[in-house]
């Protein structure tokens, strides 16, 4: 078999520039859409030019992005190639609008299904999946409420597979877009306050049956489209976290492996594997203090220099029957080799395990089996919103941890900026304005973060207390009702048993009196004796019923006492929580006033230093003015001019 010829394909990159509302960024960023370049003016009037495949603005993004950058992807899906669309940018860069319901997702999916239904002459099978990635690289399946762990595996034939990921079978573009919107809503719920720092990947996989031309094994053509939403900034010191694209670029350039981390593995496969990849980076320049824009432009240009390797004519084509037969032959040969050897080598055992897992993966690609799994999953999705509310509770801890880290980072940056500002002293007006704007921005960010953390802690405490109180109260009430019902049934059964026994004794007494038929005193004594036995039996039954009722009453009294104590403790706990919240609010207000006082002191120190500097400058100016007057007077009087140097030398 001759080696497969690989064709190099460059990663296409487009840039979306979203201008700020005040328009202060227009002076730094110059867009030349016809030349497809962006010029950025940095400090000291240095201008850097960046070239891309497409440069658009927010006004013409919808009209130009899909025809120029994305439409070729949908057109090549029928050939069996794998396509990736990476969308990066900060939270305010316009990325959410591009990825919204009327953005590029709708255009890609609609164009994909239009090409498939128009150009396909055989059966086809399509599935979708949606994965969310948290800042710590943990992954969650957005279309499955069971929250199974996701683990990437490298298949010998199918490439990268994700164990535990559910794929839902779809037939129309509307179904795919509906699942896309449901997944994005679930992502916002799961992420909580960190949803803007969470990345995601939405995948559409399509298999199309090919004409066999009399061959025994049926051929299929596999295609896929993956839409990445990459959160974070292009700068490593960004407050919202660094984009995973930066980390993966370092791995690609250094040749390192991402290990078992799913998102870096998928991104590296997109940028250096056998795929056709497009990057759309959204940028919003920030005006005076803008550290993100130059890093974002440089990052996008670095990606534009990457090259993937695709095998034309062979991409995506495979036969499940032939693949399974080949794997079985390899397994049989390896087993024969291991049996004939005296000792099994560790490499052979690992290879056998890998082949068996690959064979199982090929079997799992059966269309009917996947349809059945998808049908069961769709039934579970109907109850998905209810389960999402339950899963949402643990996210408070993650939000608090991320918020605490961000607050600490902001405090460190503010302290460093203040120290640098006081240490530098006299600087130019532009540098001073830039420094003060940066300090003010950090102060506002710190205030917002402290306010958000306070609100999050308060909501968490109230929700936890309310849930615990509701659960304990419901449990105690249900337990009391159950015990009361059991006692009532027990006494009722006891009364019925006693009534039955008394009726039997009365019937027996009537029979005995009928048999004896004694007259006179003897008959009267016999009748009284039998009645006495029945009365004693009735008294014993009543005594037992009374004892049982007293026992139940005492137990009920104890339960009510315990319930009363529990309610009292819960009420006291509620008052304690209210008191704690009140004290915390007081501490927060006091902290704000202390912070305000500290800022006022810092401003006073700064103004005092500036005042001293101005006084020193004023003295120097006066001294220079006096010297200038002396020089002018020397020129006017020659004798004084000759005497002045002598006096200066003395």
Present the secondary structure layout:
Layout: E1 7-10, E2 12-17, E3 29-32, E4 37-41, E5 47-51, E6 54-57, H1 61-75, E7 82-89, H2 95-98, H3 104-119, E8 124-133, E9 139-141, E10 151-155, E11 159-163, E12 168-170, H4 173-191, E13 199-209, E14 220-230, H5 244-254, H6 262-272, E15 276-283, H7 292-304, E16 307-310, E17 317-318, H8 320-340, H9 346-363, H10 367-381, H11 384-391, H12 395-424, H13 429-516, H14 520-636, H15 638-649
Parallel strand pairs: 2-6, 2-15, 7-14, 7-15
Antiparallel strand pairs: 1-16, 3-4, 4-5, 8-9, 8-12, 8-13, 10-11, 13-14, 14-17
Any overview of this molecule?
It is a single chain. The chain is 61% helix and 15% strand. The protein has 650 residues and is of the alpha+beta class. It folds into two domains: 8-287 and 302-317, Kinesin (3-Layer(aba) Sandwich), CATH 3.40.850; 398-616, no CATH class. Strands 2, 6, 7, 8, 9, 12, 13, 14, 15 and 17 form a ten-stranded mixed β-sheet that branches. A three-stranded antiparallel β-sheet has the order 3-4-5, with helices on one face. Strand 8 (124-133) and strand 9 form a beta hairpin. The longest helix is centred in the last third of the chain and has 117 residues, at 520-636. The chain is flat, with a radius of gyration of 41 Å. The termini are far apart. The model is unreliable at 386-398 and 639-650 (pLDDT under 50). GO terms for molecular function: ATP binding; microtubule binding; microtubule motor activity.
